[in-house]
Amino acid sequence: xxSAQGIRVAAWDxxxxxxxxxxxxxxxxxxxxxxxxxYPELDGRDTEPATRHLWLDDAAGPTxxxxxxxxxxxxxxxxxxxxxxxxxxxxxxxxxxxxxLVASAGRVLVLDAQxxxxxxxxxxxxxxxxxxxxxxxxxxxxxxxxxxxVLP
Length: 152
Fold this sequence. Notes:
Layout: E1 2-4, E2 7-10, H1 17-34, E3 52-58, E4 61-70, E5 76-83, H2 92-103, E6 109-114, H3 118-122, E7 127-128, E8 133-135, E9 138-145
Parallel strand pairs: 5-6
Antiparallel strand pairs: 1-2, 2-3, 3-4, 4-5, 6-9, 7-9, 8-9
């Protein structure tokens, strides 16, 4: 597990059980409970050897989280970006995305953004790359960040 500016980065097999549980709980709290979106949150990709989990925490546990997956063709996918309700508005998710950009320099990055967050991701160099779609009742847009985009 590595850490820069308080950001923790680890493969699944390097995360202790208590932390892993807390990260999964945060994801479920945000995506399933808060957004009222019953879907299979545990999709089998967390434990893939190349998946990296990035998070920030405080005494109460993870405050913000995202994961980075390897994609076919050499790109990477950012997903499950979330911030604990009481920690929002402090730029924590942005810090995690920025770290993921640096760690993925020279590689194409993709994500499926909730439509209302499109402009937020555009600040990081992502651009809409396909038609909008609805997933689990929530409008999304696919977005791509080319491999050689200058870091913000």
